[in-house]
Amino acid sequence: MNKLLGILAVLLISLNAHGQITYLDINYNEVKDQSLATYKMEITMTDSIAGIKKICSIDGKPRSEESFSNLKKMTLSGVSKYWFNSGQLKEAVSYKENQLDGEVTTYYKNGQLKRKDVYKIDSLIEGRCYDSLGVEKAHTLFHKRPQFPGGIYSLTSYLQRNLKYPSSSRKKGIEGKVMVRFTINPTGLITGAYIKQGINNELDNEALRVVNSLPNWEPGIHDGEYVNFQFVLPVIYKLN
Protein backbone atom coordinates (compact mmCIF):
# COMPACT_ATOMS: atom_id res chain seq x y z
CA MET A 1 0.00 0.00 0.00
CA ASN A 2 2.79 2.44 0.91
CA LYS A 3 4.46 1.66 -2.41
CA LEU A 4 1.19 2.35 -4.27
CA LEU A 5 0.72 5.65 -2.44
CA GLY A 6 4.26 6.60 -3.32
CA ILE A 7 3.64 5.87 -7.02
CA LEU A 8 0.42 7.93 -6.93
CA ALA A 9 2.25 10.82 -5.27
CA VAL A 10 4.92 10.74 -7.98
CA LEU A 11 2.22 10.72 -10.67
CA LEU A 12 0.46 13.71 -9.10
CA ILE A 13 3.72 15.64 -8.82
CA SER A 14 4.46 14.81 -12.46
CA LEU A 15 1.03 16.04 -13.57
CA ASN A 16 1.47 19.29 -11.65
CA ALA A 17 4.95 19.79 -13.05
CA HIS A 18 3.82 19.35 -16.66
CA GLY A 19 0.76 21.54 -16.21
CA GLN A 20 -2.77 21.62 -17.55
CA ILE A 21 -3.17 22.71 -21.19
CA THR A 22 -6.18 24.74 -22.39
CA TYR A 23 -6.73 26.11 -25.89
CA LEU A 24 -8.09 29.65 -26.40
CA ASP A 25 -9.57 31.62 -29.30
CA ILE A 26 -8.48 35.12 -30.37
CA ASN A 27 -10.56 36.63 -27.53
CA TYR A 28 -9.00 34.26 -24.95
CA ASN A 29 -12.17 32.18 -24.62
CA GLU A 30 -11.69 28.44 -24.17
CA VAL A 31 -12.22 26.24 -27.24
CA LYS A 32 -12.33 22.45 -27.31
CA ASP A 33 -11.28 22.17 -30.96
CA GLN A 34 -7.54 22.81 -31.16
CA SER A 35 -7.86 23.82 -34.83
CA LEU A 36 -9.91 26.88 -33.73
CA ALA A 37 -7.31 27.99 -31.20
CA THR A 38 -5.13 31.10 -31.44
CA TYR A 39 -3.44 30.65 -28.06
CA LYS A 40 -2.44 27.88 -25.70
CA MET A 41 -2.63 28.29 -21.91
CA GLU A 42 -0.65 26.14 -19.48
CA ILE A 43 -1.27 26.20 -15.73
CA THR A 44 1.34 24.65 -13.44
CA MET A 45 0.81 24.29 -9.70
CA THR A 46 3.90 25.15 -7.63
CA ASP A 47 2.29 24.03 -4.35
CA SER A 48 -1.23 23.23 -3.12
CA ILE A 49 -2.62 26.71 -3.92
CA ALA A 50 0.08 28.65 -5.81
CA GLY A 51 0.78 28.36 -9.49
CA ILE A 52 2.02 29.86 -12.75
CA LYS A 53 -0.17 30.58 -15.78
CA LYS A 54 1.54 30.81 -19.17
CA ILE A 55 -0.11 31.81 -22.44
CA CYS A 56 1.62 31.51 -25.79
CA SER A 57 0.53 31.64 -29.42
CA ILE A 58 -0.05 28.37 -31.21
CA ASP A 59 3.31 28.81 -32.96
CA GLY A 60 5.02 29.05 -29.56
CA LYS A 61 5.60 32.79 -29.09
CA PRO A 62 5.05 33.81 -25.44
CA ARG A 63 2.21 36.24 -24.61
CA SER A 64 2.08 36.21 -20.81
CA GLU A 65 3.49 34.48 -17.75
CA GLU A 66 1.78 35.24 -14.43
CA SER A 67 2.66 34.01 -10.93
CA PHE A 68 -0.10 33.54 -8.35
CA SER A 69 0.20 32.94 -4.61
CA ASN A 70 -3.41 31.71 -4.79
CA LEU A 71 -4.39 30.52 -8.25
CA LYS A 72 -8.06 29.95 -7.44
CA LYS A 73 -8.45 33.51 -6.14
CA MET A 74 -6.18 34.87 -8.93
CA THR A 75 -3.88 36.58 -6.41
CA LEU A 76 -0.84 37.86 -8.28
CA SER A 77 2.48 37.57 -6.43
CA GLY A 78 5.98 37.65 -7.87
CA VAL A 79 7.03 38.84 -11.33
CA SER A 80 4.53 38.66 -14.19
CA LYS A 81 5.72 39.12 -17.78
CA TYR A 82 3.91 40.11 -20.97
CA TRP A 83 5.10 40.08 -24.60
CA PHE A 84 4.26 41.77 -27.90
CA ASN A 85 2.99 39.57 -30.76
CA SER A 86 6.51 39.63 -32.17
CA GLY A 87 7.90 37.92 -29.08
CA GLN A 88 9.60 41.09 -27.80
CA LEU A 89 9.17 41.58 -24.03
CA LYS A 90 6.59 44.28 -23.30
CA GLU A 91 6.32 44.35 -19.49
CA ALA A 92 7.80 42.82 -16.34
CA VAL A 93 5.66 43.69 -13.33
CA SER A 94 6.28 42.79 -9.68
CA TYR A 95 3.25 42.04 -7.48
CA LYS A 96 2.63 41.13 -3.87
CA GLU A 97 -0.89 39.94 -3.06
CA ASN A 98 -2.37 41.74 -6.10
CA GLN A 99 -0.58 45.01 -5.33
CA LEU A 100 2.31 46.54 -7.25
CA ASP A 101 5.39 45.85 -5.16
CA GLY A 102 8.92 46.04 -6.55
CA GLU A 103 10.10 46.92 -10.04
CA VAL A 104 7.83 47.67 -13.00
CA THR A 105 9.64 47.81 -16.34
CA THR A 106 8.04 48.27 -19.76
CA TYR A 107 9.45 48.38 -23.28
CA TYR A 108 8.67 49.69 -26.75
CA LYS A 109 8.27 47.29 -29.68
CA ASN A 110 11.84 48.10 -30.73
CA GLY A 111 13.12 46.85 -27.37
CA GLN A 112 13.89 50.33 -26.00
CA LEU A 113 13.13 50.83 -22.30
CA LYS A 114 9.88 52.77 -21.87
CA ARG A 115 9.42 52.83 -18.09
CA LYS A 116 11.22 51.84 -14.90
CA ASP A 117 9.19 52.31 -11.72
CA VAL A 118 9.60 51.07 -8.16
CA TYR A 119 6.50 50.44 -6.02
CA LYS A 120 5.93 49.57 -2.39
CA ILE A 121 2.47 48.18 -1.57
CA ASP A 122 0.85 49.92 -4.56
CA SER A 123 2.57 53.26 -3.84
CA LEU A 124 5.04 54.69 -6.34
CA ILE A 125 8.46 55.20 -4.72
CA GLU A 126 10.32 56.38 -7.81
CA GLY A 127 9.84 56.20 -11.54
CA ARG A 128 11.26 57.26 -14.89
CA CYS A 129 9.72 57.22 -18.38
CA TYR A 130 11.49 57.40 -21.75
CA ASP A 131 10.58 57.97 -25.38
CA SER A 132 11.27 55.39 -28.08
CA LEU A 133 14.77 56.84 -28.61
CA GLY A 134 15.72 56.51 -24.94
CA VAL A 135 15.31 60.17 -24.00
CA GLU A 136 13.77 60.70 -20.56
CA LYS A 137 10.33 62.35 -20.58
CA ALA A 138 7.63 63.32 -18.06
CA HIS A 139 6.52 60.45 -15.86
CA THR A 140 3.02 59.05 -16.47
CA LEU A 141 0.66 56.82 -14.49
CA PHE A 142 1.29 53.12 -15.01
CA HIS A 143 -2.12 51.60 -14.31
CA LYS A 144 -5.63 52.71 -13.40
CA ARG A 145 -8.81 50.72 -13.91
CA PRO A 146 -11.90 52.38 -15.42
CA GLN A 147 -14.22 53.95 -12.85
CA PHE A 148 -18.00 54.26 -12.97
CA PRO A 149 -19.10 57.83 -12.12
CA GLY A 150 -19.49 57.91 -8.35
CA GLY A 151 -17.86 54.51 -7.82
CA ILE A 152 -19.15 51.01 -7.16
CA TYR A 153 -22.05 52.13 -4.95
CA SER A 154 -23.35 54.41 -7.70
CA LEU A 155 -23.08 51.53 -10.17
CA THR A 156 -25.06 49.24 -7.86
CA SER A 157 -27.67 51.95 -7.33
CA TYR A 158 -27.99 52.50 -11.09
CA LEU A 159 -28.61 48.80 -11.70
CA GLN A 160 -31.22 48.62 -8.93
CA ARG A 161 -33.09 51.65 -10.29
CA ASN A 162 -33.03 50.70 -13.95
CA LEU A 163 -33.26 46.90 -14.02
CA LYS A 164 -36.80 45.72 -14.80
CA TYR A 165 -37.71 42.20 -13.70
CA PRO A 166 -39.39 40.55 -16.73
CA SER A 167 -42.95 39.58 -15.79
CA SER A 168 -42.88 36.00 -17.09
CA SER A 169 -39.76 35.08 -15.10
CA ARG A 170 -41.11 36.94 -12.06
CA LYS A 171 -44.36 34.94 -12.15
CA LYS A 172 -42.41 31.69 -12.44
CA GLY A 173 -40.20 32.67 -9.50
CA ILE A 174 -37.01 32.49 -11.55
CA GLU A 175 -34.01 34.06 -9.82
CA GLY A 176 -30.31 34.03 -10.51
CA LYS A 177 -27.28 35.86 -11.81
CA VAL A 178 -26.51 36.93 -15.36
CA MET A 179 -22.83 37.56 -16.10
CA VAL A 180 -22.37 40.25 -18.75
CA ARG A 181 -18.96 40.78 -20.32
CA PHE A 182 -18.11 44.07 -22.00
CA THR A 183 -15.28 46.42 -22.90
CA ILE A 184 -14.70 49.98 -21.68
CA ASN A 185 -12.99 51.68 -24.62
CA PRO A 186 -10.39 54.51 -24.36
CA THR A 187 -13.16 57.13 -24.36
CA GLY A 188 -15.09 55.42 -21.52
CA LEU A 189 -17.83 53.99 -23.76
CA ILE A 190 -19.22 50.47 -23.23
CA THR A 191 -18.77 48.29 -26.32
CA GLY A 192 -19.19 44.64 -27.27
CA ALA A 193 -21.44 43.59 -24.38
CA TYR A 194 -22.51 39.95 -24.46
CA ILE A 195 -23.81 37.26 -22.10
CA LYS A 196 -21.01 35.21 -20.61
CA GLN A 197 -23.34 33.21 -18.37
CA GLY A 198 -27.12 33.51 -18.62
CA ILE A 199 -30.43 32.30 -17.17
CA ASN A 200 -33.02 32.58 -19.95
CA ASN A 201 -33.65 34.82 -22.95
CA GLU A 202 -35.79 37.50 -21.29
CA LEU A 203 -33.58 37.86 -18.21
CA ASP A 204 -30.45 37.84 -20.37
CA ASN A 205 -31.86 40.45 -22.75
CA GLU A 206 -32.87 42.75 -19.89
CA ALA A 207 -29.40 42.44 -18.35
CA LEU A 208 -27.85 43.38 -21.70
CA ARG A 209 -30.22 46.33 -22.07
CA VAL A 210 -29.38 47.83 -18.69
CA VAL A 211 -25.62 47.32 -19.15
CA ASN A 212 -25.73 48.98 -22.56
CA SER A 213 -27.64 51.90 -21.01
CA LEU A 214 -24.85 52.67 -18.52
CA PRO A 215 -23.36 56.17 -18.85
CA ASN A 216 -19.76 56.63 -19.91
CA TRP A 217 -17.09 55.56 -17.45
CA GLU A 218 -13.83 57.29 -16.63
CA PRO A 219 -11.55 55.35 -19.00
CA GLY A 220 -8.73 53.13 -17.83
CA ILE A 221 -5.02 53.82 -18.19
CA HIS A 222 -2.19 51.39 -18.78
CA ASP A 223 1.44 52.39 -19.22
CA GLY A 224 0.46 56.04 -19.58
CA GLU A 225 -2.16 55.49 -22.29
CA TYR A 226 -5.96 55.19 -22.37
CA VAL A 227 -6.73 51.60 -23.37
CA ASN A 228 -9.52 49.04 -23.63
CA PHE A 229 -10.43 47.25 -20.40
CA GLN A 230 -12.64 44.18 -20.18
CA PHE A 231 -15.15 43.70 -17.38
CA VAL A 232 -17.52 40.95 -16.27
CA LEU A 233 -20.49 42.43 -14.40
CA PRO A 234 -22.99 40.28 -12.44
CA VAL A 235 -26.61 41.37 -12.89
CA ILE A 236 -28.61 39.79 -10.08
CA TYR A 237 -32.31 38.92 -10.17
CA LYS A 238 -33.79 38.26 -6.75
CA LEU A 239 -37.45 38.31 -5.73
CA ASN A 240 -38.38 40.03 -2.46
Question: Any key phrases for this structure?
Answer:
240 residues, alpha+beta, Fusion Protein Consisting Of Minor Coat Protein, Glycine Rich Linker, Tola, And A His Tag, Chain: A, Domain 2, 2 domains, 11-stranded antiparallel β-sheet, 3-stranded antiparallel β-sheet, 44% strand, globular, disordered N terminus, transmembrane, TonB/TolA_C, TonB C-terminal domain-containing protein, protein transport
Taking the alpha carbons of the first and last residues, their distance comes to: 56 Å
Strand content: 35-45%
**How many separate structural domains?**
2
Radius of gyration: 22 Å
Mean pLDDT: 91
Q: Would you identify the regions where 5 or more consecutive residues have pLDDT less than 50?
A: 1-17
Q: Write down how many β-strands occur, each being a DSSP E stretch of 2 or more residues.
A: 17
The largest pleated sheet is described as: 11 strands, antiparallel
Please identify the structural class as seen in this structure: alpha+beta
Count of helical regions: 4
Q: Which of globular, elongated, flat, extended, rod-shaped describes the shape?
A: globular
Describe the structure.
By secondary structure, this protein is an alpha+beta fold. It folds into two domains: 2-140, no CATH class; 152-237, Fusion Protein Consisting Of Minor Coat Protein, Glycine Rich Linker, Tola, And A His Tag, Chain: A, Domain 2 (2-Layer Sandwich). The protein is built from four helices and 17 strands. The protein has helices at 2-18, 152-162, 167-171, 201-212; strands spanning 20-24, 39-45, 51-57, 62-70, 75-76, 78-83, 89-96, 99-107, 113-120, 123-130, 136-137, 143-144, 176-184, 190-197, 220-222, 225-227, 229-237. The strands form three sheets. Strands 1, 2, 3, 4, 5, 6, 7, 8, 9, 10 and 11 form an eleven-stranded antiparallel β-sheet that branches. The longest helix has 17 residues, at 2-18. The radius of gyration is 22 Å and the shape is globular.
